[in-house]
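User: I'll paste a sequence; please echo it back and then give the predicted structure.

Assistant: Echoing your sequence first, then the prediction.
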Amino acid sequence: MAFRLGIFGVLIAALIGVMVFAYSILNPGKHGPEANAPTAAPVTEQVLTASAALPGGSLLQPGNISSTTIPVASEVPGELVDNAPNRAALVGSMVRVPLGAGTPILDTAVIRPGDHGFLAAVLAPGMRAVTVAVDTVTGANGLIWPGDSVDVLLTQTIQGAPDDKGFAAEVVLSDVRVIATGSEVVKDASEGAGGAGNGGTVTLEVTQDEASRCLVATNLGKLSLIVHSAQGVQKAEDPPPPLPAPVFSGDVSPAMSAAVPAQTQVTTVNVISSGGDGEFKF
């Protein structure tokens, strides 16, 4: 009886061995040294994201754009790969919907300057858009970005004024929002100094009265922009501060004011002869 049980145990062990061998043949790579081989890392890429929370209607500046690494397999249609052309194309674009910090910026979530309907989408109700040529030192070269608040400064030569009053600067618009720079929203603009060809155009969001003031100023002299501090935002309920007084040549240069000769006072006297004895009436 014990002999039979021994034979039966050997047969069971042999059967188990055959089953294990057959399983290893049918499932190669699951066992042995290859089972411990490292798994290949997933392919990843950098996509553009919002660096901080952005409300809908915001105009993207370079500091608003960041990036994150995601697996290529999980890429969502419309995500933008982090490269120089995509970053440059996003600057000045308006965010259609609120974005959280680190949220990928989808191509469908922004409207770019030059796109149909950009101005209508970005302007606040009742506001106007006016495009002006500005001093290229302040209006171009990356110093002014869409979304900045600026003052518009006019400098002009005043014909016929004394030397100390012959050149003046004054603020014609205060705290207006830049909605585009360069020629993105200016079609068929002429080339030349201060024109779109030199990147010296800026589109501002203004009231109807401010638009009139700005267009008159463009015919008087040169316009420059002064950027407001990002932390000096005026509350909506606060009344706008008065514009500062004009600054003349003599206000800046006391030497110029002192060099202006004093005007000789001329007194005109009408002499009427009485016709007799040398008497005169004054």
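The two ends are 165 Å apart (CA to CA). Confidence is low (pLDDT under 50) at residues 186-199.
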